[in-house]
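Budget justification aside, the reviewers requested a transparent look at the raw inputs and outputs of the sequence design task funded under Objective 1. We therefore reproduce one unedited record. The lines immediately below are the structure tokens for a 491-residue chain.
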């Protein structure tokens, strides 16, 4: 049995017991308390105290705010009931969502992919039933994109005619405990489009082909417990079966294939061996956070697997997800006239502890430093410096076969975000740039978004890749440079 099973199962059992106790108490209290007269019911706020994430990526139930640009596409409608004498029929649930169409094309020929990078139409529907103690939420996307040849439904990879974004139940069990179970979008950490301690699944295909930034986050099937106290707050996320990234596999984006020694795509689709046994191939993530003199401090723990393939099986030659354990910390708060953040993480690659297996990712130490400031009204600049330091690099070099591409001991990335709001903030101009001085490559994401009226918006953007070598992270995607256009109707 895996060495993390006993601990994960004990914690899961403990959480289930807590769920049963507090659900029983909640229903008992609800039954014992007489209802208020119609129209006088007050909606209670969800307990908070979670540190705010960078602007734009706020999850639904606490946690730091998301990086700018990753906010939900449709604004949530107010859940507070209002007495309306002589009103007509009212739906029993809140309905929101949007319809949009997106089209994008590569700016150059890619021999391994189609010329069209995205050509989808999408309808998102959000149904929410709020309550004093319990909230039900369902968010689903109906879509069609002829770029993919296969339209069979796969909720794990997001392929097919339906993408289930959320199907969850939130229970406000007590003033100090929230429980949320089901499919949900999870996030924490302080990075802006860079992630160290956020080990929840990402959708890198969406990020590189021009979908809205909210689709960088893919859903998790998990149980989340949030406990609040005067000394700090604790989030516990248990995922009974491993949720991988929606990683680059060659179906939409070409990539560098080390085994072939060249770029590949639809001619060499990655089909990995996935850990998929319930309660055996599980994940556990913890975050303890609190405010310290105006600064948001947090400690993190993760036990699971590398979220994208991080190794190769020696027998079958297929990609694998090695075991991973991460310990980290972060702090975020005011510096000068802006907001600064620092985040660190130690990645323990448990299937290659000594770093002497070149077929599995080495352990790493990661550091992120960031700063954001509004220079003048409606013009914001954000900068980040990110480092990945490979541990046991000498052992890695000693076992690397001759003529193989060697990974650097230190990888550095610098990011720059520029955001300008104009025309009463209806026009948004933005540029997000990744530059790696160690790899000699870059990734630029220019975007123009115009809010036509209360419902209609249009967007024009691009994903521009450049690299000196075809095997570096951004350099491998050079043939995938694309421009896209989107039109959206929100309701």
């Amino acid at each position: 049995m895996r060495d993390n099973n006993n601990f994960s199962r004990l914690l899961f059992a403990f959480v289930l017991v807590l769920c049963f106790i507090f659900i029983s108490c909640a229903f008992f209290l609800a039954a014992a308390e007489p209802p208020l007269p119609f129209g006088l019911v007050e909606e209670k706020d969800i307990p908070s105290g979670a540190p705010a994430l960078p602007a734009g990526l706020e999850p639904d139930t606490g946690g730091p705010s998301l990086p700018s640009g990753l906010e939900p596409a449709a604004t949530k409608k107010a859940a507070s009931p209002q007495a309306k004498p002589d009103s007509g029929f009212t739906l029993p649930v809140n309905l929101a969502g949007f319809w949009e169409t997106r089209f994008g094309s590569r700016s150059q020929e890619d021999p391994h992919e189609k010329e069209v990078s995205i050509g989808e139409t999408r309808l998102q529907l959000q149904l929410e039933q709020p309550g004093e103690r319990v909230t039900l939420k369902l968010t689903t996307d109906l879509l069609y994109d002829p770029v993919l040849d296969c339209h069979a439904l796969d909720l794990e990879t997001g392929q097919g005619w339906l993408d289930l974004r959320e199907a969850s139940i939130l229970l406000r069990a007590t003033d100090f405990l929230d429980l949320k179970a089901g499919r949900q979008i999870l996030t924490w950490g302080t990075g802006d489009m860079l992630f160290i301690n956020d080990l929840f699944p990402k959708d890198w295909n969406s990020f590189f082909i021009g979908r809205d930034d909210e689709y960088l986050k893919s859903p998790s099937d998990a149980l989340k417990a949030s406990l609040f106290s005067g000394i700090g707050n604790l989030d516990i996320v248990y995922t009974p079966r491993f949720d991988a990234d929606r990683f680059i596999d060659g179906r939409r984006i070409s990539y560098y294939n080390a085994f072939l020694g060249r770029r590949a795509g639809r001619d060499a689709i990655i089909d990995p061996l996935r850990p998929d046994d319930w309660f055996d191939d599980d994940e556990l993530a913890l975050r303890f956070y609190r405010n310290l003199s105006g600064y948001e401090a947090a400690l993190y723990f993760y036990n699971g697997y590398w979220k994208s393939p991080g190794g190769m099986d020696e027998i079958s030659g297929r990609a694998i997800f090695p075991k991973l354990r991460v310990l980290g910390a972060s702090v975020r708060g005011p510096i000068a006239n802006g907001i600064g953040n620092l985040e660190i993480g130690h990645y323990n690659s448990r299937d290659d502890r000594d770093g002497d297996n070149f077929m599995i990712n080495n352990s790493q130490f990661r550091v992120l430093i960031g700063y954001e400031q509004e220079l003048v009204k409606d013009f914001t600049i954000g900068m980040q410096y990110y480092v990945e330091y490979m541990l046991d690099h000498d052992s890695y070099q000693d076992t690397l076969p001759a003529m193989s591409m060697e990974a650097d001991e230190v990888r550095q990335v610098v990011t720059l975000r520029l955001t300008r709001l104009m025309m009463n903030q209806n026009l948004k101009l933005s540029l997000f740039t990744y530059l790696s001085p160690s790899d000699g490559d870059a990734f630029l994401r220019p975007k123009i978004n115009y809010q036509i009226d209360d419902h209609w918006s249009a967007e024009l953007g691009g994903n521009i890749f450049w690299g000196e070598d075809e095997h570096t992270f951004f350099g491998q995607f050079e043939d995938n440079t694309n421009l896209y256009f989107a039109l959206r109707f929100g309701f």
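Residues 5-32 form the longest helix (28 residues). Residues 5-75+92-411 form a domain with the Porin fold (CATH 2.40.160). Computational costs for records of this kind are itemized in the attached budget.
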